[in-house]
Amino acid sequence: MTGTTITAQPGTPFIEVVREFDAPPALLFRASTDPELVAQWLGPREVEIRVFEHDARPGGRYRYVHVDREGEHYFNGVFHTVVADETIVRTFEYEGWPGNVSLESSTFESLDGGRTRLSMRSVYPTVEARDSMVESGMEHGIRDSMDRLAALVGPARGQVVVDISLSLDGYVTGPDANEQQGLGVGGDDLHLWAMGERANERDKEVLDASYARSGAVIMGRRLFDIIDGPNGWNDEVGYGAERDQSDAPPVVVLTHSVPEKVRLSRRFIFVTDGLESALEQAHAVAGGKDVVIMGGGETCGAFLDAGLVDELVLHVAPVVLGGGTRLFPDGTHLRLDRVGSVSTPAAEHLTYRVRRSS
Q1: 287, 327, 343, 348 — which has fewest CB within 10 A?
Q2: The model scores a pTM over 0.90
């Protein structure tokens, strides 16, 4: 078992959640009782959490708030049973629905290989109360929380990868790129290997491998405005081209300001305090997989110039655009070691290890 299993049988007041982690029970228990660690994983990715109190001992209380675009949502409860590395039992109350208190129990089961099965069971006062919680979007919050917890306690981080298509003359868009014509004049030819008739099975294998390794994606604000626009991504077309987007990796958007409206709100995390912060937040939600920087060209170039990239993957299309957005501006100096290449009629897929400055 690698994902999160959520069970809410019809006609019962229970919700059960099970997830296995690549970490020992002691580490999971600490992440569940240390308020500084709790603040790093509890809740959906798109909300801010502030922990006011988290006294994990019998009779101790906890209280925190989730802050999102709709306002502030406060939660509180009392710890009843706390057995180190084994069991936590506590009450749970959403203050927007006062008096509707559930009882939550968490057990930490040690597995072979230093792993842990975390089992959580919530008992609500009525079936109707349980159903209301399910209908509120609880599942999204639980899955995000478990993924973030896995990233917090899990194995070493994945690599940081710039993965981008470009022309033979070094452009990642054609001339006159804008929100209506995101890739500029002739820029669509850069991606025929992924979405065009020229793509063959080897191109598909490259695309699928890139998608599978991606735990989180980073993009710049200009690219976000294009893909979140009316002609941008949807449930069938998005990261990884034409495929079901229900399990697409989260996207961190590097921006100076958070947009007022977002069409695909649950997919994006907005970061306004620089490259390293964006990278930290991407690692936090990547679940140990790679963080892929997909564009635009200026964003990719900034991460490369800052020495934050482990691997550079280029899909070089057989087209000369003569202008547009360059991936490597004048003055760029990188030392690379080629570690892989795949040649198809639609593109040269080249993978390089980026030599870090000593």
Answers
A1: 343
A2: no
